[in-house]
Amino acid sequence: YDFVPMEIGGIEKISVFPMLEGQMGNEFQFDVSGDLEIPVGLISWWGFDSVEDIVGSNSGSMVGGVLNNGVLSSGYFLVSDDDSLDFSNELSLGVWVNVNNVAGDNVVMDKERNYKLSIVDGKVVFEFADGGEVKVVESADEIDDVGDGDGGEGGEDGEGWHYIVISLNKGGIS
Hints:
The protein is mostly beta strands. 0% of the residues lie in helices and 44% in strands.
């Protein structure tokens, strides 16, 4: 079925470039001028217009923060532990992050003892449990190396909005 959880605004298409072992694959383009379709198998989706899980039962709560027009301005968003959010065989995560400072360890998402997404000293770092062992994968480039090099509208390179996607299955990560 078709579903429109939020306004698309001026976005007309989305391009995806898959990565495998540091090599960029062919571009996939998606027209988003119509309604968004919820993918089969999607467990949860937080549009951040509210704390509600749009497709599942994993609604969250705000801790020390405020949602303003879909943006978490401070604090953090907490979702209770639920087995449906665990990594078992495959997992895909997508998150918009507004980077103001790439130095240090900036946790974006943490499913304790299962997976963790962070920006550590400018690199995207993903940790996950696999058979009792913790594996760590990090981006080849720092976020401040992404883009046109001018730092955007008066900011430093890497600052601003970035969309981070992790796709993982027992056979590999991209």
